[in-house]
Amino acid sequence: MRKFKTESKKLLDLMINSIYTNREIFLRELISNASDAVDKLYFKSLTDSKVEISKDDLAILVSFDKDARTITVSDNGIGMDKDDLDRNLGTIAHSDSLEFKSENAETQGEDIDIIGQFGVGFYSAFMVASKVKVVSRAYGADAAYSWESDGVEGYTVKEAERASHGTDVILTLKEDTDEENYDSYLSEYKLKSLIKRYSNYVRYPVQMEVEKTRELPKPEDADDDYKPEFEHYRELDTINSMIPIWKRPKSEVTQEEYNEFYKSDFHDFSDPVRTITVHAEGSFSYDALLFVPGRVPFDLYSKDYKKGLALYSSNVLIMEKCEELVPDYFNFVRGVVDSQDLTLNISRETLQHNSQLRAIAKRIEKKIKSDLADMRDTDREGYEKFFENFGRGIKYGIYSSYGMKKDELADLLLFYSAKQDKMITLDEYASAMPEGQESIFYAAGDSVERLAKMPIVSTVLDKGYDVLLCTEDVDEFCMTAMADFAVADADDPDSLTAYPLKNVAGGNLGLETEEEKEAAEAVAKENEDLFSAMKEALGDKVAKVAVSTRLSGSPVALTAEGPISLEMERVLSGAPGNDDVKSERVLEVNAEHPIFETLKAAQDAGDADKVRLYTDILYNQALLVEGMPIDDPVEYAQAVAKLMV
């Protein structure tokens, strides 16, 4: 027996027990090695006229023997001689494929795609095998040799028998333990599923002998009540698809084929609403096939949902969901990315954080954004349905980035226009603004119907300005994070004008004239005692009581000063631990409304109880209009009843 060197023994133990975290990828690694061996022989046939090999005859065979507890991966590729076995398998982390790839980088072409680069994938077999035997015969050689090891002390290399060129990797599985069921790999179903999952797009046929059923011919003398009989038989079948749909030219793939691939691979029963294809060449190359689902995944907004795109390297699945490839605000996008240029770690199970990955992710993000913008402009009905499903995440992307992503995402947003009675973009809002409008106005609440009836919304509409009605809990947080929206000048596209985003229930909207301001100040000064009495009646429920400059038909309205609006208070107070979140409430009083005269009369008559009663009723009415709960519904009902006696 040839002993592994001390360093090799340590590395082998590390690879078997630490580097690979998912045992079932052993088959992926062995099939990838077999594909490399076949590719090398095919390359040799292209460069050496003496080698007569038909690509159609090249294949990989997977088989198993339950009684012997073995799994065998065979290929008819280039094969190895005695020295190759000693060098490639006896020296840990030596990669013959990497050497081949480096030496023939300029001549490989598109027909050759060497997968293995690290020389450690073979040893993943020891995660499931107690013994591994490799029987190989090099192309053109007369003799075959075997390499055998238990992955502990060393290995043996000796002469063996093999009918033709190629390699057999024979795994004798470990005995089952309480933690691991190794016998599960000794089944047709399990091996087929692993091939389809990890090696479905290996470029050569991966074949297995599988069990099938067929109906027997009906006997000529069968009675009328004859029931069909069936027989089981075994047949060599190709398990993998070989050519991935994302590598085919877009012009040669129908939308129906894309839809079927999406529904099959991503387990959805609905067609995608958008299909995005990317083929990039240059300093690094990759293909991407992305889908925007037609419906919201049931777990999209749950903590269990995991975003990411399936990552392939040279058609071999590396990660089912690579989170780094899509930002959180595009977490609904599904699809695959395939690149042969990515730098993987030695187990292929995880990626090194490198500039290539970041560059691919950046380009994919840009492509998704561009395609959604095109959908917005060319298929508005479809885009509005999409935004209804996934717009919340885009808004949250602006909020969670503290507004840093607003330049990339703001023009994808849709809000309901109170004036136009439909969903519009911020750019469409700005385009319809009358001359002289200096801000974009919005109102936040739980429904379009209630917001449209709010007194402050009506006041802004009466002045000729539109109001965006925001009904999702993230809306106001998104608006606050954006702060403003920049619009290009029609005459000078390079010149931008930033319009502040203002909540109509917030502080100063800048809608009043100087005369209206002066009139309000005069009323406040003249009725200083009344406003003090009203503030005293409400106590710390409000920060102040003030004369309104924005109300027309309603007696009072509740607004807020400071960073927390009434809607923010409502949303935040619904979360555990946020009971103390309060806005700085302001009760605005309409001095032009008849009720104000009633309040003044009660104050002038020295009827403090009536002032307190009326103030409490008006405050509670303002709460109800805002969709907020009142402190004591019974007390409010009794107060209203007093007015009716």
TrEMBL record:
<keyword id="KW-0963">Cytoplasm</keyword>
<dbReference type="InterPro" id="IPR003594">
    <property type="entry name" value="HATPase_dom"/>
</dbReference>
<comment type="function">
    <text>Molecular chaperone. Has ATPase activity.</text>
</comment>
<dbReference type="InterPro" id="IPR037196">
    <property type="entry name" value="HSP90_C"/>
</dbReference>
<keyword id="KW-0346">Stress response</keyword>
<dbReference type="InterPro" id="IPR019805">
    <property type="entry name" value="Heat_shock_protein_90_CS"/>
</dbReference>
<comment type="subunit">
    <text>Homodimer.</text>
</comment>
<dbReference type="Pfam" id="PF00183">
    <property type="entry name" value="HSP90"/>
</dbReference>
<dbReference type="InterPro" id="IPR020568">
    <property type="entry name" value="Ribosomal_Su5_D2-typ_SF"/>
</dbReference>
<dbReference type="InterPro" id="IPR020575">
    <property type="entry name" value="Hsp90_N"/>
</dbReference>
<dbReference type="InterPro" id="IPR036890">
    <property type="entry name" value="HATPase_C_sf"/>
</dbReference>
<feature type="region of interest" description="A; substrate-binding">
    <location>
        <begin position="1"/>
        <end position="348"/>
    </location>
</feature>
<keyword id="KW-0547">Nucleotide-binding</keyword>
<comment type="similarity">
    <text>Belongs to the heat shock protein 90 family.</text>
</comment>
<keyword id="KW-0067">ATP-binding</keyword>
<feature type="domain" description="Histidine kinase/HSP90-like ATPase">
    <location>
        <begin position="22"/>
        <end position="177"/>
    </location>
</feature>
<dbReference type="Pfam" id="PF13589">
    <property type="entry name" value="HATPase_c_3"/>
</dbReference>
<keyword id="KW-0143">Chaperone</keyword>
<protein>
    <recommendedName>
        <fullName>Chaperone protein HtpG</fullName>
    </recommendedName>
</protein>
<dbReference type="InterPro" id="IPR001404">
    <property type="entry name" value="Hsp90_fam"/>
</dbReference>
<feature type="region of interest" description="C">
    <location>
        <begin position="571"/>
        <end position="645"/>
    </location>
</feature>
